[in-house]
Amino acid sequence: MSLVDIPHLPTEDKIMDPAIKDYFDSKLKSSEARSAASVAEFRTFVSATLARMEERDAARQRADDIQHKEVQRQLDEFRKESRGTRKVIIATGVTATLTILFGTAGLNAAIIQNFHNAFEIGQRHATLQHEMAVQNQKSSAVLVQMDARLAAIEKSLVDKKRRTP
Fold first, then answer.
1. Distance CA 39, CA 48 (A)
2. What pLDDT is stored for residue 162 in this prediction?
3. Distance from the CA of 71 to the CA of which of 14, 52, 99, 146 falls in 20 to 30 A?
4. CA quadruple 38, 41, 43, 48: dihedral, nearest 10
5. What CA–CA distances, in Å, run from 140 to 51, 129, 133?
6. Three-class DSSP labels, 119-147
7. pTM of the predicted model, to two decimals?
């Protein structure tokens, strides 16, 4: 179907009463005005909503910046406060390490000194034991001689008693 083949409107549709036409025109204009007012109201609502969203985002951003600055300030303050603690911890660690090293060295020196003293005592003990053994032999020899003399004296006394009646 082409434009030429479009059927014509019936005659009743062609002619409209001017009062009805004015009525429809005013209705159409009022409807368009209401639609325009509705669109304007919707645009105002959307604009206000967007403005509030931007204000909320800006306020949130400011709050985040303030919170970030506060956290950074607290972190800096903590670092300043912990600087002394770190020095104490390092000094304590160095001191403990040196104490362990010197303590171990002292313990080793004491053990070596004790071994050395024990060895010297052992040598002295061996020397004394040898001297006591020699002294014991001498004492035994003297006792044997004394026993022999005593036996000789007793024999001479017994012989004297036999000779003297």
1. 14
2. 84
3. 52
4. -160
5. 127, 16, 10
6. HHHHHHHHHHHHHHHHHHHHHHHHHHHHH
7. 0.36
Residue 137 has pLDDT above 90, yes or no: yes
Distances (CA, A) of 22 to 14, 30, 36, 61, 154: 15, 12, 20, 57, 184
The mean predicted confidence, pLDDT, of the chain is 87
Rounded (10°) CA dihedral 54, 57, 61, 63: 120
Q: Give the separation between CA 121 and CA 116, rounded to whole angstroms.
A: 9
User: How many helices and strands (H and E) does the chain possess?
Assistant: 2, 0
Q: Position of tokens 């020397």?
A: 127
Structure tokens at 131: 């001297």
Percent of the chain whose predicted confidence (pLDDT) is above 70:
88
17-26, 61-70, 114-123 — which is least confidently predicted? 17-26
